[in-house]
Amino acid sequence: MTQTSPRRRIRWSTVSDHTILTLGAILMMAPPLLAFISASHDAVTIHREGIQLGFGDQLGTNFRKAMFEKGGFTQTVDGTLMLINSLILGIGFAVGKIIISMMAAYAIVYFRLRFATLAFWMIFTTLLLPLEVRILPSYEAIQRLGLTNTYTGLIVPLIASATGTFFFRQFFMSVPEELAEAARIDGAGPVKFFIDILVPLSRTMIAAIFIIMFVFGWNQYLWPTLITTDESFFTLVRGIKQIVLSYTDAQIPEHGQALALAIIAMLPPVLIVVFFQNWFVKGLTESDK
Amino acid sequence: MKRAGFTTVWLPVALLLPQLMIIAIFFYWPAGWALQSSFYLQDPFGFGSTFVGVDNYTDLTNNGEYMRIAWFTVVYSALVTFFSLSIALLLAVKADNVIRGAKSYRTLLMWVYAIAPPVAGFLGILFFDQRNGPLTVFFQTFGWDFKLGVNYNSTATAMVMVAVWKQIPVNFIFFLSGLQSIPRAVREAAMIDNRSATGRFWQVTFPLLAPTAFFLLIINITYALFDTFGIIDALMKGEPGNNPMTLVYKVYLDGFRGNDLGGSSAQSVILMVLVLLLTVFQFRLIERRIHYT
Fold first, then answer.
1. Which of A68, A137, A231, B117 makes an SS bond possible with B34, Cβ 3.0 to 4.6 Å?
2. What is the ipTM of this complex?
3. Contact between A244 and B132 using a beta-carbon 8 Å cutoff
């Protein structure tokens, strides 16, 4: 008895561990999954009965309508255009942020510059105030510059925060000193060193940051809501507001399409996070410190 | 700065210029402008503004509605932070325990990170739908007449639940990576000293996780304050009415729908000060963490 009891205790705790984890997984999975299943039904069924537990036969129709039918929600724009806008925002933001912050971090870490510390603190201070806090004045600035309803106005102000710069600074600091010395002895200038040595060395970091920034850019809501009033600039997440309104407004019972569009809005960032989760987790846990 | 720094002058300036310009135009200018206009009263027709000193601030503190929103924000942040941290911690501890399927659990529990807050809010609308939302029906079986968007407490409950759900993955990822960085030797030593798993957790694991938890505390408060905008906006379906809202939502409402520039700017400045305090607090903790480890 004394020999079996610890073994049994361990087994029971394993069972309870798995039970709790399964419940947790269901908690996280169920809402989007049920939304997806419900998207396979026609508008009347969803309107009358709410969320569905089994698949219907309207999945293809709903997704096709959501992607290609103009006027379903916003009168002038279809899901494809919104998807393209979301990609422009996500990729444009991620790439812009990586390029600009790598350049700045390189300048701060690798050059003897009198005002490097000042520049660092000026950039670093931006970490303190998220865009949401200074949303109204930022909007005013964009308006005065005439950048509303442009991709520039959509993307560039979001880049005005130091997360990327700070992250690359930390990484460059951890690169061995000897590397730059050796490069100099071999006659490589700062540009050559940056492009041929430092950038290839940062590949994993760039990938990790790209994933986080892409998801961040893709998921932007408040800023696009303010900056884009012209529907041809709507992103999927920006369009969610229209989806919500059409969903709650019984006059336009386009529930199947609304759900399909919401699924399309989730899919690309979710796929990226799932498929590149090791890079993603690494980037997240190391960049936020 | 590196010892072996390059000495070229024009190159680093050129490299820094894009970042500094963006920051100047889209950060320092707007922030300064907010500070300035918080001391002015804007003419409702946009013809000019008069200097009113701290009137915009005192108006806010005397405003019952603003104080009610501030109070809601505090309660909301506390609830969201507490529940998302505790659920995530529980799941992370269990995910760290199991040997089989650990990777699959991690994937299943973290992918919701990628869902945008307003999309999460939209899912909330489905589940809290007034006629046939599963959670509405669930609450009704307990005799609670749940009405999203109509009843203050119902809407607040939905906002908290969706915000907690959306934040669990981030906390889970950080807790799990914190747990996995605890050295094996420490775990084995604890195993010998303390037979009870619960005792081991509170006496050994939890103190070792404390730095992660403190860091997440700040992250979660910031999240509840700012990133839940989309959730709140979706759940109130564009009709603020007497629905609960956070301070950030109020800034947006007054500035963009109410056209109260001065008041909205004063609110922005109050939030800025709040974030600054949080950040100072955070840096002190990080300093302490470096000393510990």
1. A137
2. 0.86
3. no
